[in-house]
Specification:
By secondary structure, the chain is mainly α. The protein has a single domain, classed as Up-down Bundle (Dehydroquinate synthase-like, alpha domain). Helix content is 67%, strand content 0%. The chain has eleven helices and no strands. The two termini are 27 Å apart.
């Protein structure tokens, strides 16, 4: 989404074309995931492996390292000084991806990708609401501080939160029923 944003081509079709393996994994989770068992972990590992091969084939990480990784780096800096943050790299990047997807979807006025991600996060037990964020040591204010601290980075997250309007987070991280 960040690459499309930087190119000023806000097209969900182009995003889908850029990340087919990710969307295949998302579709599999939404339609077939039931529990973390050996079959599930093998399937998810294959999707992860295939997406990393595409990075190697592209010889470019632009599609894989957007604002969500800036957010990870900032929260990692916080984590070094605060043992209460127990979030993994994947959890933090997931949080950043969820925020990025919402902002991108808001820009194009089509929330399908965000809604699918949110449902998949819920199924996979990935933090997707404030209680989940608190459980991994990232309360709302810490997230706001990190987003503020990346506002100088060229990304959807950096640009959107440079205006210091964080009210959108309440919509992104509301609990699903």
């Amino acid at each position: 989404m960040d690459i499309q944003y930087k190119l000023n081509i806000l097209s969900i079709e182009q995003v889908k074309e850029n990340i087919p393996e990710v969307l295949d994994a998302l579709k599999w989770v939404l339609l077939h995931y039931t529990t973390y068992d050996e079959q599930c972990l093998n399937k998810l590992a294959i999707y992860l492996h295939n997406s990393s091969l595409n990075v190697i084939l592209r010889d470019n990480t632009d599609l894989s390292a957007g604002g969500e990784h800036h957010l990870y780096n900032k929260l990692y800096d916080y984590q070094k000084n605060n043992e209460l943050i127990s979030a993994t790299h994947g959890q933090i990047v997931g949080i950043g991806t969820l925020i990025t997807a919402y902002v991108f979807c808001k820009m194009i006025e089509n929330y399908e990708l965000y809604n699918n991600l949110k449902q998949a996060f819920k199924k996979l037990l990935i933090p997707h609401h404030y209680d989940g964020l608190n459980n991994i040591g990232i309360p709302k204010q810490v997230l706001i501080n990190a987003l503020s601290d990346i506002s100088d980075k060229s990304s959807i997250l950096g640009d959107f939160f440079s205006q210091n309007d964080f009210s959108i987070l309440d919509e992104i991280f509301k609990k699903l029923s």
